[in-house]
What we know:
Bound molecules: adenosine-5'-triphosphate
Number of domains: 2
Number of strands: 10
Shape: globular
Family: Belongs to the ABC transporter superfamily.
CATH architecture of the largest domain: 3-Layer(aba) Sandwich
Helix content: 40-55%
Pfam family, one: BCA_ABC_TP_C
Keywords: Amino-acid transport, ATP-binding, Nucleotide-binding, Transport
Radius of gyration: 19 Å
GO molecular function: ATP binding; ATP hydrolysis activity; L-isoleucine transmembrane transporter activity; L-phenylalanine transmembrane transporter activity; L-valine transmembrane transporter activity
Strand content: 15-25%
Protein name: High-affinity branched-chain amino acid ABC transporter ATP-binding protein LivG
Structural class: alpha/beta
Amino acid sequence: xxxxxxxxxxxxxxxxxxxxxxxxxxxxxxxxxxxxxxxxxxxxxxxxxxxxxxxxxxxxxxxxxxxxxxxxxxxxxxxxxxxxxxxxxxxxxxxxxxxxxxxxxxxxxxxxxxxxxxxxxxxxxxxxxxxxxxxxxxxxxxxxxxxxxxxxxxxxxxxxxxxxxxxxxxxxxxxxxxxxxxxxxxxxxxxxxxxxxxxxxxxxxxxxxxxxxxxxxxxxxxxxxxxxxxxxxxxxxxxxxxxxxxxxxxx
Length: 251
Ligand SMILES: Nc1ncnc2c1ncn2[C@@H]1O[C@H](COP(=O)(O)OP(=O)(O)OP(=O)(O)O)[C@@H](O)[C@H]1O
C-alpha cells in the first residue's frame, strides 16, 4: 500500500533523512523507532506531503506522491496526527469532526449556501460518522464540550477520531502515546489494534513507548542519524545487536 524507496531529506548542510526505505502492506501496523533526532518525524513529513523530499520515491497504492501537497495526499486516503495535539480548541468536540470532513471533501461553498439536497445528505452522513467515532473512542458524552477543555488523553483520542471520520486506508500516528498515563496507553493500544482488525486500516506509527511498539507492531523499522539501521518483526528487532548498541549509546 505504501512504498518508500531511498527517501532523503536535506536541510542545508544537514542530511536529516538518508536513503530510508520502508513499506506498509494492507492491514499492517508498522512502526518507525530510533533515538531522538533520528529523522522519524522528517520521514513522516515527507510521506504526508508537509516536506518535499530531496531524494527518493514514495508510492501510495501504486501512485507516486512525493512532492504532492498534504491535502491531496489526505484525499487519497492517507491521514496523520502530529506529535503535538492540533485541534481547533475553541470549537466543540463534534465540530472538530465535522470540519475535518468538510476540509477532506472540499465541500462546495455555493452548495452549502443554497443547501442543495445532495449537500444536506452529505451533512447528515458527516454527523452520523462523527457520532459513530465519538462513541467508538469514548467521547460521545463530551460531544458539545470545547475541544481545548478536554483532558490530554481525550484530546489524543479525538485526534484519532478526526482522522477516522475521513475513512482513511492508512493512518499515520506521530507519538500518539506521548504524555499518556499507563491506563490511557493501554486503551490506545487496543484502539490502534482495532482500527486494523475491525476497519482494515493500515497504521504507520512513530512511538517511543517500547512496550506499545513491541506489543502491537507487525514490523518495525529502526532509523539512526537519518539512516536505516534495521527492520524486522518485534522479536528480530529486540535481538538485533546494532539496535541494542544504538539505544545503549543514547542512554
Ligand atoms: N524544518 C527543518 N529544518 C532544519 N532542520 C530540521 C527540520 N526538521 C527537522 N530538522 C532536523 O532534522 C533532524 C531530524 O529531526 P526529526 O524531528 O525528524 O527527528 P525525530 O527522530 O522525529 O526526533 P524526535 O524523536 O526527537 O521527535 C534533527 O537534527 C532536526 O533538527
